[in-house]
Amino acid sequence: MKYKKRNKALVLLADGTIFYGKSIGKEGTAFGEVCFNTGATGYQEIFTDPSYYGQLMVTTNVHIGNYGAHKDEVESNSVKISGLICRNFCFEYSRASATESLENFLEANNILAISDVDTRALVSYIRDNGAMNAVISTDINNIEGLKKQLDEVPSMEGLELASQVSTKEPYYFGNENAKYKISALDIGIKTNILKNLAKRDAYIKVFPYNASFEDLEAFKPDGYFLSNGPGDPEPLKEAQDVAKEIIKRDLPLFGICLGHQVIALSQGISSYKMHHGHRGINHPVKNLITGKGEITSQNHGFAINREETEANSDIEITHLHLNDNTVAGIRIKDKNCFSVQYHPEASPGPHDSSYLFDQFIENISKN
Ligand SMILES: NC(=O)CC[C@H](N)C(=O)O
């Protein structure tokens, strides 16, 4: 194993709590909302998921980097987390098909990563005290200066971030001779969602976050899709208008995560910031229509108001999160629209929920 000189680094939480670790290489400072993901695999997919834009990621799995990085295992074209906090960072990796080390991959993306942090203590602290802003830095003797800068970082609540990760220009995905055409609103779309739609014989036109219903309609699609994405759904008024219009016209619509929240908001249901969110790949959900359980991949810090959803006679709750009974899926009664708070496209899995893509295609085909 090659010797590497590694500088001391720290994690400073907004409430003043400090955890120490070591930089994996790069020097510097990074800010964001601190959150944790419990998945034991899929670190590269997590780091490149646009929904994590603006967040400092704590990985609870003790080894990060052990299977290297692969050029195809990305959810977007760059790393989207603002920094990584982990326990053991593996500079040596072991996997025949890996195309580079995670160290190189993070370096090429200019991401600050710190390891040797007591991540169990940090995660339990977040679980007790809630998600909050934090800074990670190799500038360990400048705590007062870092605190001042940290105070300037906006809170995730109320923050619009979709515009930061959305495509600037529309683009196409899949085979143009496919059976179905779908217009997708990119408010932070993951590549694996596009792959799942294309695999089901769909050709997709992906639109920027501020596209109008008329823009999406001009593609003459058979169905509409609202993507996952970062930040608070509340400020996304344009996307909510798009959802409202699609629902009003009873056109086939499917929304995932941020897209699900936007659909709910468009129908007058409010969203709220959760204590510390759901991020991992073993979250239990119950499908209330079939009575079956699903193990799901989740990544969200906001949720929609359950009481308001139950009180709305036009909306049916179709899925519940079994850990805390939060709303995990809805459908609009008498409309061709449904959405889920979790990730049926999950890569590397689990794949229990991939039937939702089939359901969307069936809704399109019946229409
Ligand atoms: N994965 C997502 O789409 C996340 C949605 C939203 N940004 C949240 O944190 O709840």
Automatic annotation (TrEMBL):
UniProt-recorded Gene Ontology molecular function terms: carbamoyl-phosphate synthase (glutamine-hydrolyzing) activity
Record region (CPSase): 1-180
Carbamoyl-phosphate synthase small subunit N-terminal domain segment(s): 7-137
SUPFAM superfamilies: Carbamoyl phosphate synthetase, small subunit N-terminal domain (SSF52021), Class I glutamine amidotransferase-like (SSF52317)
Primary enzyme class: ligase
Pfam family, one: GATase
Domain of life: Bacteria
Catalytic center residues: C257, H343, E345
Residues annotated for L-glutamine binding in this entry: S51, G229, G231, L258, Q261, N299, G301, F302
EC number: 6.3.5.5
Keywords: Amino-acid biosynthesis, Arginine biosynthesis, ATP-binding, Glutamine amidotransferase, Ligase, Nucleotide-binding, Pyrimidine biosynthesis
Reactions accelerated catalytically: hydrogencarbonate + L-glutamine + 2 ATP + H2O = carbamoyl phosphate + L-glutamate + 2 ADP + phosphate + 2 H(+); L-glutamine + H2O = L-glutamate + NH4(+)
HAMAP family per UniProt: CPSase_S_chain
NCBIfam families documented for this protein: CPSaseIIsmall, PRK12838.1
General function of this protein: Small subunit of the glutamine-dependent carbamoyl phosphate synthetase (CPSase). CPSase catalyzes the formation of carbamoyl phosphate from the ammonia moiety of glutamine, carbonate, and phosphate donated by ATP, constituting the first step of 2 biosynthetic pathways, one leading to arginine and/or urea and the other to pyrimidine nucleotides. The small subunit (glutamine amidotransferase) binds and cleaves glutamine to supply the large subunit with the substrate ammonia.
Subunit structure: Composed of two chains; the small (or glutamine) chain promotes the hydrolysis of glutamine to ammonia, which is used by the large (or ammonia) chain to synthesize carbamoyl phosphate. Tetramer of heterodimers (alpha,beta)4.
Family membership noted in the UniProt record: Belongs to the CarA family.
Protein name, as recorded: Carbamoyl phosphate synthase small chain
Species the sequence originates in: Microcosmobacter mediterraneus
